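hey
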């Protein structure tokens, strides 16, 4: 009965959150035409509409299906998302959702609800990561609006976010978080590069590609740490010994991040240098990047034909994740 009550509470807050978004959404065309609209907001919304058109016309994404309305929620984040994993495993905890299957995260529209579940999971001995998010996809159930949470980002960040979320609407594999997020991440990066080339913004394209190089360097450090921890967790050593070695491995990761930050000119990775790292933090990153090389290779193999890419991606069988077996 308790589990049933918690399930009802979860879906109750989800419905309430979605109703709030719907209630506060207004058509962007009306906002742009309104003489009282803040000029900066108007510019951003006009930029979003251009990004939507590019998504539909050049990326085979359903750009006409979302981001035609705007909602100011009066808060920094739209949802708070929890990732969790056992103390000595990189296998993420999963939650079951109707028509979606098991996914590696749990999202809440109220921060207090997310922190309540996080406390429960920590009490069960799990490593937990809780993060505020500025956007999410309903996978076609609703038309996503532009939100105050992200509308004032740079146009490049807006394009990457919109292309990522629209990729979920184009192709989503039920019960496979790593597939879905890796696909959307890679395709959004490809989409931004095509978008910048289309606009002949060569200097911005070079800067964005430099950002992608830095992301790869960051992912490489995460992947190296993942390998060390998986070896440790499979070693069968006593818990106290594993706990000490785990702390040492994560401390080494933080030290490598400091060196990486220095090579970048002293910017970036702030949260990774200040928070206490754990398995859940790594899981949240691995989910988004573990299949990235596969999808990048597939893009090259399709010679730029995006329809062919999505058709082949839909049939792609990826090897099982050792941490999830």
């Amino acid at each position: 009965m308790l589990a049933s009550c918690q399930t009802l509470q979860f879906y109750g807050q989800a419905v309430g959150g979605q109703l709030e978004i719907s209630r506060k959404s207004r058509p962007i065309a009306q906002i742009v035409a309104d003489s009282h609209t803040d000029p900066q907001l108007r510019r951003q919304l006009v930029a979003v509409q251009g990004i939507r058109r590019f998504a539909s016309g050049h990326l085979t994404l359903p750009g006409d299906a979302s981001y035609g309305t705007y909602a100011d929620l009066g808060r920094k984040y739209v949802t708070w998302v929890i990732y969790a994993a056992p103390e000595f495993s990189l296998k993420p905890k999963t939650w079951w959702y109707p028509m979606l299957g098991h996914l590696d995260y749990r999202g809440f529209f109220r921060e207090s609800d997310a922190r309540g579940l996080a406390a429960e999971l920590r009490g069960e001995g799990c490593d937990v990561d809780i993060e505020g998010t500025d956007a999410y996809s309903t996978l076609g159930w609703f038309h996503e609006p532009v939100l105050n949470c992200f509308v004032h980002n740079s146009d490049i960040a807006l394009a990457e976010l919109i292309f990522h979320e629209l990729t979920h609407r184009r192709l989503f594999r039920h019960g496979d978080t790593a597939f879905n997020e890796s696909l959307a991440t890679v395709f959004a990066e490809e989409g931004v590069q095509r978008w910048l080339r289309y606009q002949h913004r060569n200097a911005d394209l070079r800067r964005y590609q430099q950002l992608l190089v830095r992301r790869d360097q960051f992912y490489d450090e995460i992947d190296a740490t993942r390998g060390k921890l998986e070896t440790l967790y499979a070693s069968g050593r006593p818990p106290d010994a594993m706990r000490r070695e785990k702390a040492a491995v994560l401390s080494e990761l933080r030290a490598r991040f400091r060196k990486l930050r220095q090579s970048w000119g002293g910017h970036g990775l702030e949260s990774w240098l200040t928070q206490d790292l754990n398995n859940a933090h790594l899981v949240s990153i691995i989910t988004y990047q573990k299949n990235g090389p596969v999808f990048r290779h597939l893009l090259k193999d399709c010679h730029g034909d995006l329809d062919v890419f999505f058709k082949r991606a839909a049939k792609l069988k990826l090897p099982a994740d050792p941490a999830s077996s």
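The chain is about 60% helix and 10% strand. Residues 10 and 188 are 30 Å apart (CA to CA).
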